[in-house]
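Sharing a chain and its predicted structure for anyone who wants a worked example. Both blocks are below, sequence first, tokens second.
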Amino acid sequence: MMTPNMRWAVVCGLLQRLVQLAGQRHQLAVGRCAKDRQPRDRKQSELLAHLFDTLKAAHEPNGTSLFDHTCIAYGSNIQSIHYLDNCPTLIAGGGAGIKLGEHFVLSDPKTPLCNLWLTLLRGAGIKAVTHGDSTRIIDEIAAV
């Protein structure tokens, strides 16, 4: 049986590896085709799935899992320029009071990404009024 410290070490190790792979994005982004990025993207997906599985396997005394109390945000590859237009973002875990298991495309393409961060903060119980250039919470994903 894994102790909480052992589980945390596994989670930190997985997150560290994801960050290392994310740092390679810029090295591969310019002048390379999609097939050059596929192995890296596949590995990142496998690591992310393993992180989810590890969090789900870490059971709390009340019968829930660590995944149920965590919010994970995983952003898309920004290929070459740091524009924040059309940024697919995966949100997982039950720790931020959002609807799970759904795919949302917001109707306004100019919605600030900070609206998502504000929604997650509020869902986690943080009484933030704004975050960055946010304009509102995203009601479409709020579970409450």
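Comments welcome. DSSP finds four helices and two strands in the chain.
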